[in-house]
Amino acid sequence: MRDATGVALGARPPGDDVETLFTRHFVAQASRPVGLLDVPVGGLHPGHRCLLATDGMVSTTLEAYHLEPIAAQPVSQGDARLDATDAHWLAVPSAATAFRRRVALRGAVSDTLYVVAESLLVPSRLPAGFGDAIDRFPSGLGAALLASGIESRRELLWFGAGTVPDWYPVAAGRHALQRTYRVVHGGEPVALITESFL
């Protein structure tokens, strides 16, 4: 039996096909920002590959891997005007306003910094009171979405090698694996999320 790309199920494709196997999960890899560099996914630690490709909650994956609770520490949040690229991926007019939330995901026991993440949310497409739900769940946006009971799916857009963004000065400029995905609810994007994995 073979998957959609013709690779036998259970078989590991040789050479460059490993890159194709992994990248096919990202629907807009060719549209990734210019500053993101290629990543030889075959050489990545399996844990990093799982983090890049998971369409579940990153905090849950981190907790399972590191065996400690993960807490989302807010860095900043508030309204932000979208640039043309972000507006496109959120399917809103250019220069529209979104709710921007920036957090650091840290180990609640070790205080290890694992991820910095920026979420751009379209409040009009989310349930009333969703903003309050975000504040109630220390493990982040994914937990708030789950608790709200809305049906949603994640659409992986792109990934690459980059650096921690300047908005998190504690680690700004450090090398990081980065990915961007969007959360879709009711056929419309409700969030655009960029995560940098240290």
From TrEMBL:
GO terms for molecular function: lyase activity. InterPro entries: Chorismate_lyase_/UTRA_dom_sf, Rv2949c-like. SUPFAM superfamilies: Chorismate lyase-like (SSF64288). Gene3D superfamilies: Chorismate lyase-like (3.40.1410.10). Keywords: Lyase, Pyruvate. This is 4-hydroxybenzoate synthetase (Chorismate-pyruvate lyase). It comes from Micromonospora pallida.
